[in-house]
Every structure is written in C-alpha cells, then in structure tokens.
Amino acid sequence: MLLREVAYAKPESLAEALEILAADDGARALAGGQTLINVMKARAGSPDTLVDLSGLDDLKGIELGADGTLELGAMTTYSEIIASSEARARPILGEVCAQIADVQVRNRGTIGGNACTNDPTNHLPPLLAALGARFTIAGRGGEQTVPAEEFFLGVYLTAVGTGELLTKITIPAGRNDGFAAVTLGVDGTCVVSAAASLNGSARLALGCVDAVPVVLSPSSTDPDAVRQAVRDTALDPPSDVHASSDYRRHLAEVLAVRAIEQAQRS
Amino acid sequence: MTSTTIAPEKTEQQQEEWKGQNVPRKEDWRLVQGQGVFVDDVKRHGMGYIHFVRSPYAHAHITSIDVSKAEEHPAVYGTLTGEEVAALTDPFFQISSVPGANVKDYALAVGKVRFVGEPIVAVVAETREAARDASELVEIEYEPLDAITDARHARDEGVPTIHEDAGGNLMWEGVYEWGDLDAAFAEADKVVKIDELHFHRFNSTPLECDGALVEYNRGVGQWTIHTNNQFPGFAAIMMGPAMRVGLDKLRFVTQDIGGGFGNKITSHPQLVACCLLARKLNRPVQWTEWRTDFHLSMSHGNERWFLETEVAVKNDGTLLGFRTKALDDAGAYLRYEPLGGVIWAQVTPGMYKWQHVRVDFTQVATNKAPVSPNRGYSRMQHLWFTERMIDIVAHELGLDPVEVRKRNFIKAEDMPYTTPNGCVYDSGDYAKMLDIALELVEYERLAGRRAEAAAAGKLLGVGIGSTLDSGTNNFGQSRLINPELQFSGNNEVATVKLDIFGEIVVTLGTTPQGQSHETTASQVVADILKCSIEDVHVRSGHDSYWNSHAGFSGTYASQFAVTGLGAVKGATEMLRDEILKLAGVVFGGVPAEALELAGGGVRMKENHEAFLPFMACGAIINANNAGLPEDLDVTLNCRYVYRPPFEVPDVERKYGNLTLTYAAQIHVAVIEIDPETGSYDIVDYAAVDDCGKRINPQIVEGQVMGATAQALGAAVHESFVYDEDGNLLTPNFYDYHVPHALDMPPLKTGYIESPSPFTSLGTKGMGEGGGAGIHAVCAAVQDALREHGGAIVWDSSNPYHRVWEMLNDPSKGAHVQVSEA
Amino acid sequence: MATSAVPTERAISVTVNGTTYDREVEARKLLIHFLRDDLDLTGSHIGCDTGNCGACSVIVDGTLVKSCMLLAVQADGARVETVEGLAAGDELSKLQQAFTAHHALQCGYCTPGMLMSATALLRANPSPSDDEIRKALQGNICRCTGYWNIFEAVKAAAE
To answer: What ipTM did this prediction achieve?
Structure first.
C-alpha cells in the first residue's frame, strides 16, 4: 500500500508536461492511475516524479469527424466513452469499456492509460488493434502518428518514449465489430480476449496470448478459416496459474470465431 | 433476486416473544455510519508503525541479518530480529505429539525461513511509509534450499527436512478405525477404488486483514493488545508461556472485527512481535497486515489429499464402509494444527449410515503458508470427500445420486444418532431437506432443461452437496491428537447487570465478526426480563481485563447460539431471580412466586398496580441500599458460565462425543458448461438449512447466504496455488478471484427447524455449513460431463481450465476402478 | 532521484463532507490514508492493496472512485464525500436504512464503500434495474453476505 517517495507535478499545458518528462528520465505520466498507482503500491515500479495529466484539457474529449472518424483524447475515461453519443459511432468501444473492471475504475481509468500500459490482460490493446486505431504521440520535437502494430512493443512497453506522451487515439469509421473474452468470473482478470472488425477485410486481434496484441487477417469469416488463421500464427502463449499455454491457444481460436460472429451480427 | 424460499408451515400460534423475530441489528446503527471501531482505527499518541520484512524464499538458511542501515533511517524507532525473539521468548507451545511436538516456532524466523512471506525482521518507524522505506534497508543473506510444495512427496527419500528438530517432514499421524472393515468388504457386492482426490487450499479472505495496536505499561508489566484476533483465549495460552508471563499480563481488547471465518485465530506470532517491540521501544506500536501479506502468510485452509480410497458397497447402493489415507498439507508451521487431524471426526459418516470406517491420517510440513481454521474447518474437507465418494459410487454403479443418498441417510426417527465413533447427532431430517432442495430447483423438470441447454450448445449438470455444521467443540478431542493435553469440554461467559438507572447491560466473552451477537443476545435477554430489546445494551467486543471471559471464549466453530446464548440465558435468569427476590423485600416480604416481570419492571401477579420499575431496583441495590436485610443475596450483577455436557473421549478407541449440535445443509447446484471454453454458469441454486430453533431468522439466512457465496467462490476460482519453488501465484485479489456482485447466481433458500434436544434454547451453532456448495458444484460438473467423456471430478477446485481439460481428456479426472468383491 | 524543481510534498486543501481541511502532505500519500490517518475519518476502509475491493470507495467531485488509487495531492481543491457524511444528523439516509432493514451487512467492513457505490448509483439512476444494481456494485467486494441482501436493500431504497 505504501509508495516510495515521489515528486508530483501537475502541469497546465502539454508543453509544460513534455518539458518535465524530458528533464527527468525517472518521470512518468500519471493518467487515471488505475494501474500505475497499484504498481507503485507494490513498489514494483517507483517513478521519481509523477506528471499528473489531469489538468491538460487538450488530452480530453471525443470528436466525431464528418467521415465517421473518432478522435479520442488520451485522458478520456472509460465512463466518458460509455456515456458519449459520439463514441456510439463505433458501438464496440463503449461495450468493451463497460466490461473493464468496475464503475470506480471506469470513472478514473483512461483509454490512453490502458493503451500505454499495454498489460496483456487489458481489453483495449487488442480492440484498438483490431479497429485499426492510430496513436498520436507528442514529444518536444513534434508529433508522430503510428498504427497499432508499431505502437504496442511489449508488456508495459509502447512506442511512447521517454519525454513523450500519447495525446490521442484515432479510430476510423466502421460498425461491424466484435469482442469476446474469457475472464475470471464476470469482468474479472482476463484470460484470453479476441477483437474483430469486418469493415472492409476481416481484421482480428488476440489479447493475452503474447506480449502485444496479435493481429491477423483471416482469409474469410468462415469459422474454419478463422481457426486456421489463428493456428497459422503459431501462437506460443504463456502458461500461468489461470491457463496453460494449450488452453490459451485453444481459447484464442474459440474467441476469434466468436468475435467474428459478433462482428457479423452487428 | 432471491427468488424462492420454502419454509415450514407454522403449526401453532407463535408466542409473542423476541426470539424468532427478524429484529433489526443493533450493530448496524454504527456500522452504516462508518462509526464502527476496527483495529486499524485505534490510534495512540506517539505510536510507531510496524513493517515486517518477509522472506522471498520458500526455504532457505538465513546466513546474516544486518539492520544497521535501517536503524539509521531518521524516522525509525527500532527493529526486532529473530535472534532477539529467540532470546526473549520460548518457542510456542505445540499441540502435536511427536514429531510435530518438536517443531520450534517463534514470532519471527530464527535461522531459517520456511515459506515465502514469513516475517524475518520487524521495523518500526514514525510513519507507515517510513517503516516500509527502512525495511528495504535491512540486509539479509540467504542460502536457498529446495522447497517442498507437494505433500505427497514430503517424505520421499532425499527431500530436504523443513524442521530439523522434528527429524523429517512428518508432523503427526494417527489411525482411526471403527467397526469391522474386513466384514464390510466381505459383505460388499462391489468395491470402488479411487486413486486420488484433492481438497484444495483457499480461505475465506475476510475483507479486513489482521492487525493490532499494542501498548506496554512498564509500571505494571502489562500489555494491552487491541487486536482483531477472533479467539483471544487461544492466543493467550500460546503467548503467555512463550513470553514467560502470566495471562494477567496480556490484556486483549477487540471491538468490531471485519470478518474472521477462522482465519483470525492464529495471529499470535505477530502479536508477540508487537508486544516485544512495544516493550523494547517503550511506545505503542501498530501493525496493519496488508492483503498480500495476508495471502502469503495467514491461515490457509487445510489442503488435503485422500489416497487409495476404497468403498464397500452393495449393488443397490447401500454403503457399508470405506477406508482411505488422508494426507494434510499443513504448510510450514503448526499454528493450530494438527487439530485438523481430528476435527473432521466430528462428522465421520457425514449424513449417512456408514458403520465401518478406517482413516489413516497423516500431516506433513511443506514450504507453504501455515494452515489453520477456515469456515467449516477440517469437516468441510472430510464431508467433501464423503460426498465425492457417494457421487463416484453412483456414477460407477449407474445409480441415481438422489436415490443413493436417500437409501443411506440417517433417518429422522434414528435421532439422536450415535455415529460409529461415538458422536451424537442431536436431531435432523436429511431426506426432507433434500426433497425441499430438489423441489426448489424443480428437479423433475431437469431432463427437459438438459435438452434445452444442449440445444443451446451447453452441458447442463446438477449436483447435490451436503454438510453437517457440527458446533460447540468438546476440546477433549485434542487428546486424540496428543494424549498428554489437558483440555476437555468447553465454556462461555456472559454477564448481565441492572445499573443505577435501570440499564440492562450485557457483556459477552465472544469476539463477533459479523455474527450479530449484540442483537441475538438482546433478544434472549428481553424475553426473560419481559422488556424491549431497546432496553438491553450489549457491549460489543471482548476485553480480557475484566471477568467476562473464560478459557474457551471467542467466536469460532459454530457455537454462539449454544454456548454464548446459553451463557446469556443463564446470567439473565439469575438476574431475573434476583430482581424478584429484591422486589419481594421491597414489597414487604412478598414471595417471589407471587411476582412477575412485565413492562420493564416487577409487579404482583394479583395486583398490577404494585409495580417496581427496573430503575428503582437498580437504584436501590447500587446506590440506596442502607437498611436492606443483611441476608439479601442480591447484586443485580450476574455472571454465568455455560458449560456443555461433555465427557472426556476414549483416547484408545478414539471414541466419544466431540460436538454438541449438528446443524445441517443440503445444497443443489444446476450449472451449464460452455464446452468450447470449459467456463460455466450456475443457473439455479438451492440452499436448505436446518439449525434448530432460529433466534433471528434473517440473521440465520444471512449466514447461510454468506457461507454459500464463499463455497461458490472456492469451487470455481479461489485457490492458493504455488509453483514448484514455493511462490504463491495468487497473492492478491487480481489473481485470487473472489465472487463479485456480477458473479452471483440466483439463490433459492429453504429451511426446516429441528430443535436440538441438548441445548437450553433448542438452538444449534451455525454459520459454517456453506461447504455444501463446493460439493454440489463438483457433483454438477461431473454430471454435466457424464455423457461427454465421463471424467470423474477429483479436485474441489474446478476453474474453467480444469473443466476444459477434463472435457478434452477424461483421463485427467480421478482414476476409479470397480471390482466385484 | 527526483529533480529538485518538483516537490515531494504539497499543501492541499480538501473539503470532506462539507469541512475544508488544509494540510501539508507527501505526494506519495494515498487519499485513503489521508482520510483515515490524517483526518481521522476512519469510516472508509482498506481491504486490499491492488485496487480490487472497493472498501475505500468515496465520491470525489461527484464521481465514485477508489481512494486507494488516488493520491491525496490529486484531491487538492476537491469536494470529497465519505460514509461519515451520508446521514443527516440522526437521520440515516434511505440507503443506510435499507441496508439495516434487509440485513445487507454482517461485519460491516465493506459497508461504507458499498454505501458510497450505491449512493452514486441512485443519484445517477434513481430507478435501476436488477442488472444495473449488480453492475454498479461490481467494484465492491463483500465476503460476508453473498451480496443478495445488498441487492435487495438497494432495490428497496430505490423504490
């Protein structure tokens, strides 16, 4: 429960935030804190400085473009996404956010924090990968935007480097999406997840089977083809107390089919 | 959401009394306002916060400890090491006979660590944060040893010894044999052999973890221990001798306790560390156990293997006898163990008429957290085994599990029933309970529901589970573990007094953790004193400084409704008689028989105008007593010790009555398995309870519900799983998934009331019977798999991945052989 | 080490149940510890160390949060509501009364957090469905009751 000593800054502008982050290798952005504070409680990680992003209005809000593109500020909370009429342009977003943990966590946890943490048990990395989301990263040198394949690099590791911040996530238009997961009890810790999007070609992302979401494009939405596509990725998922590698590999196939089926229905 | 309840029809006009009513709880007023006083709420000026440095190794020699850097931390008040503990205290008294008796257990690790999370050094500082900061400065060097995590191999050739003083990893063993096994197996048509069954490790994880605030008064050499330990009497007899002081030096104070479920009985090692630090540093010290600490180190439920089981059975399902080798994985220390090695015998035959039983019981040490009582302590494991045997026999012989149960149930007309080992089941009607449970889930419709589920791609299974909640221990059973022990019987204390202004004040020796003792005690008192429960003030919590406790005081083992309320009743009746006697004098020599209590006072039966309010009685005795007759033996302050009627068991035959009352539970679970994932939902559930007379039905039902929820959590997700190196893989609520709101299935409840003939109120202890849910889920999983590979459920823990494995490969289930006898 | 420009302590001003408290706190102090240890508001509890149990749930600026996943400095300037503020004098709130009437608590340790979650629910949704009640209480662990009576209590308070 007891954190190591830490300095705390609450910048009022993005530039100020980037400056503090750049000045100190040990500084970390504090978004909703629903993962980071717990990591600090366990002293599994102890930043020197926390840079609280809650004062940065630039990082908040949801905008729906005329072409149906959604732009979500990195500091948008799950609850805001669930409640947002704009976000309903891509209904799966709110549906999956509503399955994250519980009300309290959804009230503080943010889409940017979820993505940047890239804990394999998080729902949003595979979902965002399946939806073809693009991630805008700001640094003192300017901005860059990367797709999911370049954003998620490892467990707790993304393309957001030292001195940088994820500012927004852009999701293209589309409606035919699906998501399926096996969790410990309802909405508990995730064992395996799968997200699918059928807008144009089929795009599938598997969660909890590797350090990053595993993205694949099955040749068809036929269940056998989907299963084969999952098998072809030669997954080597981790074994842990909740699932053996074999069980995860099997669930990946089952859930991939279910996510595709939901996408077909939607 | 709680859809249906089946209750017995009321056959007679209920008498106007408080007992039997759902009066609101007295405890709630403070608790809903956040005004309860839990241990971490207690503060003292200048107190220091304790942080324990814990072992990262499951098994290692400690080669050096250096606390100098920690002590230099500016906010640190001091430290305590195992070396100091070993100098200042003696090892805790061991319940076991040899070899377990030779185990040396101290407040902190001495020379060696034996499980991950074992406290090694305590650091005390000005703030919680600083104590933890400084604990990171403690330097400990280890020489790691191989860990033993599988009890089945704890005695293999060449494995390391965990306690050198015990000469090996065997802690305790004993053979229990009753009846005539040879005759039973000769009479049998079939013998069903089951190679291995495993009851897993979990506990009830009370939401509040352990803790204490300890003060030392060097003027009188006394410690005041504000704690949430739920059995201070036990803590005292562990701590006093170890600390080389009399029990008068240890004052235990408990107030509100945030759940216990047995898990808060064995905090005595940490309490000793707190006491030593309070004395050493001459300041109050405070210890808060955090969730991860609790999971790593505190009170896991007994993990038990049943090996080489053989069941003697007739072709019609008549159960004759069984033999098995029970193997308890006690973890690294015996803190309440090996009592689990005998407690199960309270319910030897379960609800059934087995006559011939042999259990070779062994406890071994492993490099895991110590086990100690958990709701349903030791009986739950044995009853799960009993129910598993029945469902396996039914499966193998192609019989209906309902019919096998009904054929073998002890019948209502057989009560009181003496079991093969001399326990006396007081009352009950198990067949009737099963009928109610089956009616609640509409058992006759199940074939149709099974087909409906199949059409939806689901496998439906139904399972029955039963438990006996044996309450009010005869502590004489400890002698079956160790004949040298001088414990027997049981007791509990209550005091009831009438104060100056007529206040009725009750103290209890108990340490409730949500069991509503203030409320039910006030119901019993109000009925006897013919007053309102509003007039009865029950002091919450326990304080061993005063005379409101006895040797076995505490709240554990399903006994308050018998021992606690027995004491309340006894003390209140004494007070009633004193009030009548006093009033007789005040009224000028009226005999007590001519008086009665009514409306908050005493009146003459024949003349209600002649009325003496309690206030007057209290005032006369306490503050205006000049001129009362010299021989008037009235204090209006009555203390009663309830002592249940027990004999010392026969140690040679391991025979005798081990508990006073037997509440009963029968649960039925209906589940639907998703065969593609192994995940499953409980789609229908019935819990039927019989705990004799119910003082407050709503409170009883609350206990039934809570115990059920704990069982369902344990059946599906809750498990303390270790890896080969002895690391706990489920040390927090992320990985140890307890049921949340969305996990709860629909629940239907029913009850019957079979009053106990052995208790003064007809009550039975209750609250621990939820284990039936584990048994029912196991049976339901097995039923669902029957036509899908037919795997036999072998483990009490059935998370989704295990169900999927059994579906995929039925050989992952138990290995069972049936032979013609 | 922390750069000297960014402080590890801060002066904060937090209004809890209508009373404003000005305190100097370490940045690392969790809001729950600030409430319990610094302000002596011990009604909110701690039941885990991973943000799972919800015993520490409070309402901050109208939003239900777990106060163990929020630093006290993050509550600077905020209006915090805890269980101690639910009753109006001696008048228990409808939810508090319903919890008693439906035996929705046993040990009472989870109750303060549970009440705050239920309070937040009924403010946002005065007539929740059974499913909405369950969903709203998902973040609060109770080990005593099995939740069934809690659901009933919230339903009764809503009606």
So the answer is: 0.97
